[in-house]
Amino acid sequence: MAPRRLPDYRTLASLSRINLLHELQQHGAKTVTELADVTGLHHNTAREHLHRLIEAGFVDSESIPSVGRGRPQLRYRAARDRQDPARRRRQESSENRTALLRRLLPIRDVTGDDEARTRQLDSLDDHMEQCGFDAEINSGHTHMTMFGCPFAGLAHDNPQVCEVHFALVQDALAIDDGPLRATELHPFCGPETCTVDLDDAEADQIF
Questions:
Q1: For a tag site, which of 22, 161, 162, 177 has the least CB within 10 Å?
Q2: Overall domain count for the chain
Q3: How far is 141 from 203, CA to CA, in rounded Å?
Q4: On the CB side of 103, how many CA atoms lie within 13 Å of its CA?
Q5: Which domain holds residue 55?
Q6: What is the mean pLDDT for each group of 10 consecutive residues in the chain (207 residues)?
Q7: Predicted structure pTM score
Q8: Where is the composition biased (Basic and acidic residues) (predicted)?
Q9: Longest distance between any two alpha carbons in the chain, whole Å
Q10: What pLDDT is attached to residue 151?
Q11: What is the Cα–Cα distance from 108 to 85, expressed in whole angstroms?
Q12: What is the DSSP letter of 15?
């Protein structure tokens, strides 16, 4: 039986959407005209893909004040700031799924100094699952290993695919002021595996 593909996977399985999101992550806010010119997409096609990214919570848009008559243009940006409405919606959905999982499974409650780190790990775990990744984080929180990347077919010839996903991993960990940060991605470093280096600021202070 074929694996179930969740909405985030289906959204990010399009190279056109990956290229649009990569441009916004790397170079900041742009209009649909600017994005169409950079990616080679037709304006209407680019706009449709951007709407799909907005629905998934990866992109936000804002109106550009119009000087003359006519509808104001929209400027699009990657939803990376904690206060972005799309980012907040994604985080709320993640927290709801995690809360449900904790009710169903005997997961240990964590408080005190570990609380922020636990929220980060929950957010990252939910993000990876929603995108279709099978991933494990080692006990020392120094690296995450991903097995059988569902986007490998796209990524082998398009390195921007990995760059987009690494930025999303960084975003998943940046939900608040927790100690964990993703510092480097190592794509295809082993048979069917990729790894991400993690830095735990609080653990570093111990030594």
A1: 177
A2: 1
A3: 9
A4: 6
A5: 7-65+73-206
A6: 68 97 97 97 97 94 78 89 81 83 61 75 91 92 93 95 97 87 95 93 57
A7: 0.87
A8: 78-95
A9: 63
A10: 95
A11: 31
A12: H
Q: Which residue has the tokens 């096609």?
A: 45
Whether 1 is covered by a domain: the verdict is no
φ/ψ of residue 58, rounded to 5: -90, -20
In a domain, 2, yes or no: no
Q: Is 126 exposed, middle or buried (0-12, 13-18, 19+ CB in 10 A)?
A: buried
Q: What is the pLDDT of residue 205?
A: 52
Burial of 40 (0-12, 13-18, 19+ CB in 10 A): exposed
Q: Is residue 13 part of a domain?
A: yes
Q: Count CA within 13 A, CB hemisphere, residue 132.
A: 17
Amino acid 7: pLDDT? 82
**Rounded CA separation 65/77 (Å):** 16
* Exposed e or buried b per residue across 79-94, where buried means at least 16 C-beta atoms within 10 angstroms of its C-beta: bbeeebebbeebbeeb
